[in-house]
Design goal:
Blueprint: E1 5-7, H1 44-58, H2 70-75, H3 78-92, E2 95-104, E3 107-114, E4 119-126, E5 132-139, E6 164-169, E7 190-193, E8 218-220, E9 225-231, E10 250-255, E11 261-267, E12 279-280, E13 285-288, E14 300-305, E15 320-326, E16 332-338, E17 345-348
Antiparallel strand pairs: 1-5, 2-3, 3-4, 4-5, 6-7, 6-17, 7-14, 8-13, 9-10, 9-12, 10-11, 11-14, 15-16, 15-17
Helix pairs in contact: 1-3
């Protein structure tokens, strides 16, 4: 099946987890069963748009002109899309089943089947008003069908030593749930930082990265794995500023033997101690905590997802093994399995 059609109109980027300005509240008392992931299903606005494209292909090509955004009409007249959907039906037959694949940076992807044994990958963007902002239908390749993870099956230790706060993310973070999600990649990713007894992240005034307790701390391999991707040349931010151009900052990606991908972000510039293709052992030092990317203070971003990120990824619920959870009253609980919760405090057992 050859490439069908492509209209590239708006650059939509994945939104990174925002860094909170203040210490988060104590975590809610949730069991692993209660801390459920947001479902991997298309939000209604994207599903409705996909169904409208399907109906336009099958029954009424002219109808597609009625739900185009002003942006798309400025560069592509409705007549172009009408002619396109007519050509799709003529060559491939009627559109049949739609299967949601993923949502990445505000662009939804669907596998779409046609009468004549053809399969396509439909990517579409939708405005807040529910109008089409971009449309691309290309050949569906088997590698588009990646596994969707509910949770990691690889046994993971914490990627840091000492006591750490979970500044953001986790399955209980309301900002990562429901219709607010623009990407399933970071839906349960967590951000770690260090705070002192007074819940301050820095030692004196916080004007330099070196003043933050987290900055320069070692980042450890949570399990045996293979290094598959490295970015190591992005400058660290000054505290309080962010780099939205390279939101993840310096990044390291590991692949486990269960085909799960571990992503470490916001790393210190030039601190990565491994190279692509290296086999690393659990506990090995990989890099140092930095302040690169879309973060205002030194911290460690950590995620588990189903691809290395070169194709759209879907994140999963993260479970660490053998963790000490530190309660708000200072008491500790040994956890054989632990799901990170925003506002939690943990250390390795």
């Amino acid at each position: 099946m050859k490439h069908l059609f492509s209209i590239a109109l708006i650059a939509l980027s994945t939104t990174a987890i925002a860094q909170p300005e203040q210490t988060p509240p104590a975590p809610p008392a949730l069991s692993l069963e209660e801390a459920m992931m947001p479902p991997v299903q298309a939000p209604d606005m994207y599903m409705n748009a996909a169904e409208q494209v399907k109906m336009a292909i099958n029954n009424n090509p002219e109808a597609i002109g009625g739900f185009l955004s002003e942006d798309i009409m400025r560069v592509s007249p409705p007549s172009m899309l009408i002619d396109y959907v007519k050509a799709v039906k003529k060559q491939y037959g009627e559109a049949r089943e739609l299967r949601f694949v993923t949502l990445d940076g505000g662009v939804a992807q669907f596998e779409i089947g046609f009468d004549k044994n053809a399969r396509g990958l439909m990517k579409l963007g939708v405005s807040p008003e529910g109008r089409l902002t971009s449309l691309n239908i290309s050949q569906y390749k088997e590698e588009n069908r990646t596994q969707v993870l509910e949770r990691n099956t690889t046994v993971l230790a914490l990627p840091v030593n000492g006591e750490w706060y979970i500044l953001s993310g986790g399955v209980a973070d309301p900002s990562m749930r429901g219709e607010k999600i623009t990407s399933f990649q970071n839906r349960a990713a967590v951000t770690f930082s260090m705070l002192d007894a007074d819940k301050k992240a820095f030692k004196t005034n916080g004007n330099t990265n070196e003043d933050y307790m987290a900055f320069g701390q070692p980042v450890l391999a949570p399990c045996d794995a293979t290094v598959v991707k490295i970015i190591d040349n992005i400058d660290d931010n000054e505290p309080g500023s962010v780099n939205t151009t390279f939101a993840g900052g310096n990044t390291l990606v590991l692949k486990t033997d269960k085909n799960e991908y571990l992503v470490f972000g916001h790393l210190k510039k030039a601190s990565i101690k491994v190279k692509e293709g290296d086999k690393v052992k659990k506990g090995a030092t990989l890099a140092m905590v930095g302040n690169s990317g879309d973060c205002k203070q030194p911290s460690l971003f950590f995620n588990v997802q189903n691809t290395d990120g070169s194709t759209p990824a879907i994140g999963c619920k993260i479970i660490f093994s053998n963790v000490v959870a530190i309660m708000p009253d200072g008491k500790t609980e040994n956890k054989k399995i632990y799901t990170p919760l925003m506002g939690g405090k943990v250390k390795s057992n």
